[in-house]
Amino acid sequence: MTSRLAIVTGASGGLGPAIGRRIAEDFETVLLTDVREDRLGEIAEHIERDSCARVLTAGCDVSDEEQVASVYRVAAQEGAISGLVNAAGIGMFTPLTEIDQQLWDRVFAINTRGTFLMSQHFIRTAQPPASIVNISSIGARAGNDMLAHYGASKAAVIEFSHAVARGCARTGIRSNTVMPGFIYTDMWRNTVAYLQQNDEALAAISAEEVFAGIVDQSIPMGRPQEPEDIAEAVAFFLSDRAKNITGQTLAVDGGAVLT
Ligand SMILES: NC(=O)c1ccc[n+]([C@@H]2O[C@H](COP(=O)([O-])OP(=O)(O)OC[C@H]3O[C@@H](n4cnc5c(N)ncnc54)[C@H](O)[C@@H]3O)[C@@H](O)[C@H]2O)c1
Q: Which residue out of 7, 8, 15, 150 has the highest number of ligand 1 atoms within 8 Å of its CB and is therefore the one to mutate?
């Protein structure tokens, strides 16, 4: 039997390694990709040591179609392409009136165009049954004026996933979305640093206390999410256990957004 292969984008980040590790339990081959290549080898080595999967790596800027095509050329030689996790993304707090066109376009190029390019190449090359999982954000539903660019780009991902789900429904390719809540990765570390630079009261306490305060205010269950919580939802959507589920969005956020 040909080995089933899944691709993870954004695999050097805070969520990517946990996603790669979890899905290595279910796929024979996992291909970790990220624009930042320096950590990929070490992450792959750790996952491979703890699982039966073969873990490969490739540098890829998801906003660049040539690099995306190149990843799929590699993947097609290594296994039956059957899973894709679109986790690459950028986000930062920016006041609504300070978002310039360049920043708006960069956020959309990575979060939205990247998801589109990776998914389109997946649809062309996947060997069904196959499944795409997009990582959106509760920022897509929050109406947060500090995240207008990010929230809009992540809302677009949800609707794109709907279109893929309907368009591919008879082909054996499913598409679903996970909306993570608050996980203390670099994305949040940078956000907390920004908030502390702009607020003396926040600057007087530790970054961890600032984050804990935001979580307490925003999450009904009163606790942050862990990368493993997101990885579990991703693994479910990729698996045959979700064989009748497509076009859905699952918030893993302690009750912050009710869908
Ligand atoms: N951390 C959270 O609380 C949170 C909440 C909601 C949604 N998310 C989403 O989850 C995903 C992962 O976030 P994270 O917390 O791990 O963030 P992170 O910043 O730790 O990781 C993001 C990864 O994406 C990579 N990346 C950036 N631009 C890229 C590009 N052009 N091509 C390929 N890779 C690129 C980065 O190098 C990084 O490794 C993102 O899409 C993010 O929007 C995160």
A: 15
The answer to whether residues 107 and 90 touch, using CB atoms and an 8 Å cutoff, is: yes
Ligand 1 centroid to residue 111 C-alpha, Å: 9
Query: Domain extents for the chain?
Result: 4-181+225-252, 184-224
Q: Are 62 and 118 contacting, i.e. CB atoms less than 8 angstroms apart? A: yes
Q: Report the relative pairing of strands 54-59 and 29-34 from DSSP bridges.
A: parallel
Q: pLDDT 10s digit of each residue in the chain, 259 long?
A: 579 999 999 999 999 999 999 999 999 999 999 999 999 999 999 999 999 999 999 999 999 999 999 999 999 999 999 999 999 999 999 999 999 999 999 999 999 999 999 999 999 999 999 999 999 999 999 999 999 999 999 999 999 999 999 999 999 999 999 999 999 999 999 999 999 999 999 999 999 999 999 999 999 999 999 999 999 999 999 999 999 999 999 999 999 999 8
**Residue corresponding to tokens 């090359």:** 125
Active site residue 184: no
What's the gap in Å between 142 CA and the centre of ligand 1? 18
CATH number of 4-181+225-252: 3.40.50.720
Tokens read off for 91: 């986000």
